[in-house]
Amino acid sequence: MKRLLVAGLLTSMLAAPALQAADYEIDTQGAHAFIQFKISHLGYSWLYGRFNTFEGTFSYDAAKLTESKIQLEIDTKSIDSNHAERDKHLRSPDFLNVDKHGKATFVSTKIVPKAGADFDVVGNFTLNGVTKEVVIKATKLGEGADPWGGYRAGFAGTTSINLEDFAIKNILGPASATVHLDLTVEGIKKS
Amino acid sequence: MATENKGYSWTGIILHWLVAVMVIGLFASGFWMVDLSYYSSWYRTAPFWHKSVGVLLLALMLYRLVFRLVKGAAAPLSIHSKAIQRASHLTHLTLYSLVFLIICSGYLISTADGRPIEVFGWFDLPSAGELFAEQADKAGLVHKFAAYGLIALVFLHAMAAFKHHFFDKDDTLKRMLKP
Q1: Where are the domains of chain B?
Q2: Share of chain B residues as helix, strand and coil, in percent rounded to the nearest 5
Q3: CATH (one of 2.60.40.1120, 2.40.128.110, 1.10.150.120, 2.115.10.20) for A21-189
């Protein structure tokens, strides 16, 4: 009887995370989340960069994927392409105009399941004061208990945006009209 | 202290005009190069020359400062009123300070990420690292507005020299042309 009770308790404990949508805090504290970008340089090569400061939360339920949500807030000042002079230019009104628009945000509006672990995250992306709908092609990487008593779930996603759609004049040439974003977010389940 | 009315030496005169040409050239090139298009052939070379000449100006200004401290500054013209002498002295002090402020802030922009400044391809002026947060942006603001301030003061300085030359008909400008 006692063994049954313990077994039942264990089962419910294990099953619980999968049964109800759980809220996750994106682990930017431990830097287990990344927002990177790449843009063509002259059409000959890639330039990579990232945003160092952002925060976000998501709710996720493997059984009811469509009810999942994610929201991100990015500090545009934190753009880092490993070159101080270039980053200064990227923060200027020629590009991100960070004095006026210090935040970029993404708020999901819809999740569309795809094959296997893949799904689309539809949402509103605000950059340079302009809000447009974007679709992030996402995939679930994994979830489970971490070694330190927490519970984590990780996802990766990619999307592309045109600079001109966000009122950023493309002064870099025709090959550099599009910025490719690459996100990896690992969330720690809120207790 | 000079007993007679001490003017400028050839060294002082040459340094003055060299610095004048460089300061005006650096201001003009800086003003022009920040708006160059990415595909301009000057996009990479203009900042290279601007920085190299800036470092050269630093060397000249340091030499000039030492020269001034060791040999003493030229004495003000005795026909000028005390107020004029004080205003001139204050202007010269501010001109020197702004030139050093602009060079230092320029250095802090380009070296904010640890990169050195390449000087004419002769040598690299090493970076002191990132000394404060948002260094490139903050130093950039100082660099820009101090440069506007300097060029305004240069204009005032030149106008004052012309005023002394053409209206007061004194030796202010002449003694900066010949000892």
Answers
A1: 10-176
A2: 65, 5, 30
A3: 2.40.128.110
